[in-house]
Amino acid sequence: MTDDVSWLSVPEFAEAWGVSASDVRDALRTGELVAVRRGENDAWHLPSGFLEEHDGATRVLPTLVGTLTLLRDNGFKDGEIVEWLLTFHEELGESPLDALRSGKRAPVRRVAQTLL
């Protein structure tokens, strides 16, 4: 994973999103979000890039859930999913998360479908 990723703990992510920490934990449990353990306390963290500003409100990238589902269907574990989303891919010219953030859902999912 790249070192320049901004990470948020579950409470920080919840605050940035404008929901409760239990809402974030529910989204993790249902697969709508993915997190990895990081830091001295081995606490759950999510990339801040999972969030975006839209019409004056903060939301989770709308294309993230479907992409997470596709990767899980391909057998990826949560840590592998986060690593894949944050790693530069030649086919995309950027990381899949950056591509999703710039509206390139179809190319990201095409690349993800080729993974085994």
Topology overview:
Layout: E1 7-9, H1 10-17, H2 21-30, E2 36-38, E3 43-47, E4 51-54, E5 57-60, H3 64-73, H4 78-86, H5 96-101, H6 105-113
Antiparallel strand pairs: 1-3, 2-3, 4-5
Strand order of the largest sheet: 1-3-2
Helix content: 40-55%
Query: What's the average pLDDT?
Result: 95
- Rg is 14 Å
**Main β-sheet description:** 3 strands, antiparallel
Structural class call reads alpha+beta
Q: What is the strand tally?
A: 5
Low-confidence stretches: none
**How far apart lie the N and C ends?**
19 Å
Which series of helices and strands comes N to C? EHHEEEEHHHH
Supply the number of helical segments: 6
Shape: globular
Tally of individual domains: 1
Report strand %: 15-25%
What does this entry look like structurally?
The protein is an alpha+beta fold. The chain has one domain (7-113). It contains six helices and five strands; from the N terminus they run βααββββαααα. The protein has a three-stranded antiparallel sheet. β4 (51-54) and β5 (57-60) form a beta hairpin. α1 (10-17) crosses α2 (21-30). The protein is globular.
